[in-house]
Amino acid sequence: MGIILNTTGHDEHSPEVECYIRMLKEGVQEIVNTLPFVEYPHRLIVETVYNAIFWLNCFPQKKGIHITLS
């Protein structure tokens, strides 16, 4: 079927996943730095992460499976 499963061991690193997590953290930090709060409610943090994931998934990746679909 052409599916390749890339598994990692217990203490191995996956560069693709780590890069995505780093981009997600940067996106959340960008949003948080514009907010006027000192402390953040739990729900605000959850929605901020959802928002950052939404915008990361809106645009196709350069090495994705399709050139125009995300």
Overall description:
The protein is mainly α. The protein has a domain of 44 residues. The radius of gyration is 16 Å and the shape is extended. The chain starts with 14 loop residues before the first helix and ends in a 12-residue tail after the last helix. The mean pLDDT is 86.
Mean pLDDT: 86
Strand content: under 5%
Radius of gyration over C-alpha positions, nearest whole angstrom? 16 Å
Distance between the termini: 21 Å
How many strands appear in the DSSP assignment?
0
The major beta sheet can be summarized as: none
Helix content bin:
40-55%
Give me the number of helical elements.
2
Question: Structural class from helices and strands?
Answer: mainly alpha
Give the low-confidence spans: none
Order of helices and strands: HH
Shape: extended
Summarize the structure.
The chain is mainly α and about 70 residues long.
Topology of this protein?
Blueprint: H1 15-33, H2 42-58
Helix pairs in contact: 1-2
Keywords, separated by commas or semicolons:
single chain, mainly alpha, 70 residues, 51% helix
